[in-house]
Amino acid sequence: MANNxxxxxxxLNIPSTGELSAETSTYFDICREKLGLLPNVLAAYAFDExxxxxxxxxxxxLMLGPSGLSKLEREMIAVAVSSVNSCYYCLTAHGAAVRGxxxxxxxxEQMVMNxxxxxxxxxxxxxxxxxxxxxxxxxxxxxxxxxDLRDAGxxxxxxxxxxxxxxxxNMSNRVAAASDMRPNEEYHSMAx
Length: 192
Hints:
Blueprint: H1 4-7, H2 22-35, H3 40-45, H4 49-64, H5 71-84, H6 88-102, H7 105-113, H8 122-136, H9 143-152, H10 156-179
C-alpha cells in the first residue's frame, strides 16, 4: 500500500504498517461495492488496523446501528457539526449523503451552509440547535438544553445518540483538519 500522501488522501506522510489483513481487504471491497468507492477516511486510517477498526466500529454503531434517529437525521447532525467546524471532508461526504437520503439536493446544500435556512420540523431544529451548541459551547450545556430536546419529542436514549454523534464528528473533523484529509472527488457529484 502506498503512503497516504501518494494516494491523495491526506497531507500527512504516515508510513503503512504493511499489507492489509484479509478482514480489512474484504471490508474495503464491500465499501467499494456498496458505495462505488473507498472513502478516503478509511484509506487514511489504514496505516493502523487497530485504529481503523475502532473508527469503523464506532461509526457503524452510531450511524447505522439501532437508534430512534433516522439515518437521514444522523447524517444531518454530521453536517451541522461539520458546518460549525468548516470540515471540508465531512461537509462534502456527508452533504452528499444528506442529498442522497433525502432525495433533495437543496436540503443537502442548505445543511452544509446553514441549517437554519432549511425547511425543518421543530423537532429537527431543536436537535440541530443542541448539536451546534454542544459543538461550539459544550461547557454551556445545561439541563434546559436536554429538556428542550425532551419537549421536542426525543427520549433520553435519543439525546445520548445525538450527543455521541456530535462527539464523534467533532473528533473526526479535527483529525481531518489536522491531516488535511481530502474527500473523494466522487462525492461532489453525488445526488445532484
